Model the fold of this input.
Amino acid sequence: MKGLAISTSFTVALITVIMLRILDFFHFIKWDPVGFSDTFHVLKDSNAIIKWIILFIVVWAASIILYYISLVFMKIPVAITSIALGLLIAFILEWIILDANTIEKTIKKMSIPFICIIIVATRFLMESAIFHAQDKPLSK
Done:
């Protein structure tokens, strides 16, 4: 089961980072996905590829954690939990990234394509985790 979690999370992280790059390229988001280097004053002068690799590793780690968290929601339909959890994750990320003071400012500045990407990635991850758990339960 550990190999399935790692490979599924790797796929989700790879697709999410590629889609973030596309959103950034076409200016669908008003923030820079690798802007963490400017915020935290880390790797400011390094190559952009290094920043994207670090973003990929962070998304991969978060995906592995979300993979195992989704097993808690096994009894609830995935369509409901993935949309709710995906919206929550997207809202929290946009709130942190945009540094908005109020909820209204965050909602006005939210990117619909970013929300869709997060919800689809969450749905894929949760569906895969629950399918793998039903196919090969942890008790075996």
About this structure: The two ends are 11 Å apart (CA to CA). The chain has a mean pLDDT of 89. The helical segments are 2-25, 36-39, 48-70, 78-98, 103-109, 112-135.
